[in-house]
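seq:
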Amino acid sequence: MSLLGALIIVCGLFFYLAGTVGMLRFPDVYSRLHAVTKADNVGLGLLCLGCGLLFQSWSKAALLLVIWLLAVTAATVGCHLIARNRLQQGDDAE
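struct:
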């Protein structure tokens, strides 16, 4: 279980790295938002899953699930607010 948990954590870190590279490399705000929210949500989910396997405790795994759900909700709301603000400003604003 320890090896599987560590492997899943490494995969989660890879998703974080991919999201960061996408945020730095993509040309517009909408592409950057997509890269950050999707990759970071999957990365955090994998990190929580890997940590849950390493802890081997149902209560800690449930707490990690709650943390992940709150982070996904916050990322969704934040992404929506940023995209809506950008859309209201117009596409020519940089």
